[in-house]
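Lab notebook: predicted structure, single chain.

Context: the supervisor wants predicted structures on file for every construct in the current expression panel, including those that have not yet been purified. This is the next one on the list. No modifications to the sequence; it matches the entry in the shared construct table.
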Amino acid sequence: MSKYFLTLGFLLILLSGCRSYQMEYGVVENGVVFYPLCERAKQRITDMQRISFQLPLLFRQASCRNWPDYSYNSRIDSVSVEVPSVIANESQMSVGGVYSMLFRAGHARTEYYLPPDKFFEDYKEYLSERSHISRLVTASWVDWQGGRCARFYSDSDTGLFLRRVLDYFCWESVSGSNFPIHIGASERLPPDHAPTNLDREFIEPVLASLQINPVPKQRLALWDSYRADFCKRLKESYDNKTAMRRFRDGLNRQRAILFLRECGYQMPDPIGPGSWGELLRPNGQLIGRADGERKLRKVTHAQFAELEVRLMSLQLKPGERPEIRSSRLAKDGSILVENYRATDPYAGDWYWVPPSYSKQNGIGIRNDPVLGRVIDVHLMDFPTGFRVVGE
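Prediction complete. Output recorded below exactly as produced.
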């Protein structure tokens, strides 16, 4: 416990700016430069090409600290600010931005290539999929003097603190860019602290002071080239049935199709299920009934035929089954015992599956002399050796 309080004291000293190490302010490295927030916040923020604004009062009153509390990234035309502190209880500790804001006005996310309404639905789905990290509370549209903004509010409880995040994505017609302006605000406070009205205290003062500037033609051309390159790579990924790095997609490639249509390509409608859960774990339970073991599931012949058709409607890629081995601890916990092995060449058709097309996963369809037609499944979140047969 004494070591814990020693560390806590060290962090408090660090935040007070009394350390021997000093931040290097004003030095550009990889397009990023830091400035002291206590000085920068006193004047209008003009670092960004597309927008300028006044920071909210809380940041304008920030103390001077030896801390990276104001940064500008010229590559994506982005500013981030934070007021740091230490949050601690008897067993946990966190140091960092208690209050923070993020401003982006350039090329930052692939979602920016979507028009506003489609962006709204896509980003809402993205936040909903991250419910294990942060809970999406509300998603709505807000009007402002320059246009309209998509508003997303989410929160999470870590036990040590409550984290609340508010994001505005605002479209306007002055700068010449189709990308939204992103204004984000967040706070991390202990559970017994009253929450801040992030709209009133953080976002609204920025919007009230926001000035939009025309983006230089060279920068617009650069962003257009980024978009063209993204479209080209995504189309190649779709046609060649390969994974698109850092691109979130579903089993039926629905999201890729959405973006490719916005890129100008004529694309078919998505076919097939959107997830493996929808296909093999309806209502949260493995498909069919167990027959002596959980790994073998039996469905009716009609259900099996429908399942096979739905599988083959996906953008599957012929491949080779990997060597599969699975082990478990012996009952006495002393050694690992192999409980499943499949290393021989697959006696059927094996497929790598979208969207990752990983060679370590896949499905297979074969004819078994005893079981008849079999669908073999080797995917994360499913039992090793999982099979489906008709009866």
